[in-house]
Design brief:
By secondary structure, the protein is an alpha/beta fold. The protein has 20 helices and 12 strands. It folds into 2 domains: 267 residues, 3-Layer(aba) Sandwich (Rossmann fold); 262 residues, no CATH class. The two termini are 26 Å apart. The structure holds adenosine-5'-triphosphate. Belongs to the ABC transporter superfamily. ABCG family. Eye pigment precursor importer (TC 3.A.1.204) subfamily. This is ATP-binding cassette, sub-family G (WHITE), member 2b.
Length: 564
């Protein structure tokens, strides 16, 4: 392919004199599907939709699947379509507006050769010259000269005297017939030549020679615009400009030699030895997918998975509701009297956090299964790691954790009878959400690092248990050995529990007979900083842990990718 680009570059300066430039903008074309004999106005079928582009001097190919609108665009540009159907758009030739009434120096070679079978090649060309060259400008001798020039240019000398042929009369070959058809149009010296599928019906070699002929013509003051079906590579490399069409729209227009680079850039990779034009049609037909799927498109599938996979969505919600009710029943309407007032509140929070953290053990299995799919799809070029990662976080992890928490929190909060205060309720939700996200991020990181479910399960259980022990509920952190006490700084449990305790106990007064117990006194006793920053530092810590684990998970996924 690079060699082709090179050869095209070498050819870039090979115009003897360049032909005109045709530009078109916002062309829309529709046909009326009115039934015969019906007086009702028929439905409109849009065949071209707002197409714009440029046809420069040289070979301009219109490529696309059948019915994509190639012929229609060619006809509109050549002003062969009924102007009533042209709903919008303009065509300019060398910067001058042209329409069907303008005298355009153009010619159109139709797909089926329309030649007089009983006449020879020369006679057909003379017929064209006699009728189309003005007698004032061309005398008989000049017309004959023109015919000879065309015969020469098209290499028709050997068959000039041979009859075209009919059903009953063996005539010239298919390639010579096509050359003759082109010659019929070249008689008028058009600088703009339109051809509808010039290679259809010709064998590969003849098609090649016709396209080489057009290539030679395009180097000599002519701009050639043609529609074509799946040309072979030797033909494709002759295209100066390629316009790829699909469903009445242009999906690529630019140098033929750069089309492959363009598709590679947007993630569509052409297999070695694949014919580029076959590849482009495969891209249009969806047989080839982009390796640069955006987070959107990967996200589309993640979203469907999220909605359709009960393991990751509906069951999550039901589990949360179940645990919310269970928590509410165990710690139902905790009284404000000591010691239950404190003990049970902290117990309820611990239950909630255990539920959020250890609930991820089952997620690890899903992550590991999904990783196998990710490795396959990522190494096969379906999407980039970042696209998978972002869609996983934004469409799976975050909504899957946060949405059910609203249900869990609402049920637990009111069943337990926690502080009746709106701000406290939302800070309660925030704390549980951040705890859940930090825990799931750690599970994601471990799953991204481990190769088997067993290894991932063991690896995730260790930090979870350590975090629980150093969470402040099971062990009083103040009395802990100094060399171990640092572990509390990496405990999701501690940050979650401390934040929930401050949120609930600060400003509350509990009773034991006639003695008053202030919530702050308990917090002080546990060494929990209950200032405003004291509360928020826990949220910040949970948020930072989430980001760090997510980042590490991403790095791990990138490494997995490199190993493949
Ligand atoms: N007069 C018409 N009435 C109804 N539909 C039409 C008309 N002209 C074109 N179409 C439709 O418009 C679409 C584009 O047609 P067009 O012939 O331009 O496509 P094409 O890419 O050149 O196809 P092919 O490669 O098969 O020649 C097709 O679906 C065709 O059926």
């Amino acid at each position: 392919m690079e060699a082709s680009a090179q050869s095209r570059k070498e050819q870039a300066g090979d115009f003897e004199s360049p032909g005109p430039t045709l530009t078109f903008s916002n062309i829309s074309y529709a046909v009326n599907l009115k039934k015969t004999f019906s007086i009702k106005k028929g439905e409109e079928k849009w065949i071209l939709q707002n197409v714009s582009g440029i046809m420069k001097p040289g070979m301009n190919a219109l490529l696309g699947p059948t019915g994509s609108g190639k012929t229609s665009l060619l006809d509109v540009l050549a002003h062969r379509k009924n102007p009533k159907g042209i709903k919008s758009g303009q065509v300019q030739l060398n910067g001058q507006f042209v329409d069907s009434s303008s005298h355009q120096p153009s010619a159109y070679v139709v797909q089926d050769d329309i030649l007089m079978g009983t006449l020879s090649v020369r006679e057909n060309l003379e017929f064209s010259a006699n009728l189309r060259l003005s007698k004032k400008e061309y005398n008989a001798e000049e017309r004959q000269k023109k015919v000879n020039e065309v015969i020469q240019e098209l290499g028709l000398q050997d068959c000039a005297s041979t009859k075209i042929g009919t059903e009953f009369l063996r005539g010239i070959s298919g390639g010579e017939r096509k050359r003759c058809s082109i010659g019929m149009e070249l008689i008028t010296s058009p600088s703009l030549l339109f051809l509808d599928e010039p290679t259809t019906g010709l064998d590969a070699n003849t098609a090649n020679s016709i396209m080489h002929l057009l290539y030679m013509l395009s180097r000599n003051s002519r701009t050639i615009i043609f529609s074509i079906h799946q040309p072979r590579y030797s033909i494709f490399r002759l295209f100066d400009s390629l316009t790829l069409m699909n469903k009445g729209q242009i999906i690529y227009q630019g140098p033929g030699a750069e089309a492959l680079d363009y598709f590679t850039e947007i993630g569509f990779k052409c297999e070695p030895y694949n014919n580029p034009s076959d590849f482009f049609l495969d891209v249009i037909n969806g047989a080839v997918t982009s390796s640069l799927e955006t987070p959107n498109s990967v996200g589309g599938r993640t979203m469907k998975n999220f909605l359709r996979n009960p393991q990751t969505s509906v069951v999550q919600v039901f589990m949360m509701i179940f645990f919310g009710i269970l928590n509410g029943l165990i710690f139902f309407q905790i009284p404000n009297t000591m010691p239950e007032a404190l003990q049970n509140r902290i117990g309820a929070f611990f239950f909630l956090i255990i539920n959020q953290v250890f609930g991820n053990l089952s997620a690890v299995e899903l992550f590991i299964k999904e990783k196998v799919l990710f490795i396959h799809e990522n190494s096969s070029g379906y999407y980039r790691t970042s696209a998978y990662f972002l869609s996983k976080i934004l469409i799976d992890l975050i909504p899957n954790r946060i949405i059910p928490i609203f249900g869990l929190a609402a049920i637990s909060y009111f069943m337990i009878g926690l502080k009746e205060d709106v701000t406290s309720f939302f800070l309660f939700i925030l704390t549980i959400s951040l705890t859940s996200l930090a825990a799931v991020s750690l599970a994601f990181f471990v799953s991204a690092s481990a190769n088997t479910f067993a290894a991932a399960n063991a690896l995730i259980a260790i930090p979870y248990v350590l975090m629980m022990v150093f969470g402040g509920f099971l062990v009083n952190l103040n009395g802990m050995l100094n060399w171990l006490s640092w572990l509390k700084w990496i405990s999701i449990f501690r940050y979650g529990l401390d934040a929930l305790a401050i949120n609930e106990l600060k400003g509350q007064i509990f009773y034991s007979n006639l003695t008053l117990f202030y919530g702050e006194a308990y917090l002080d006793q546990q060494g929990i900083n209950h200032s405003t920053w004291g509360f928020w530092q826990n949220e910040v810590a949970l948020f930072c842990m989430t980001i760090v684990f997510m980042f590490l998970a991403f790095v791990q996924l990138l490494t997995v990718n490199k190993w493949k």
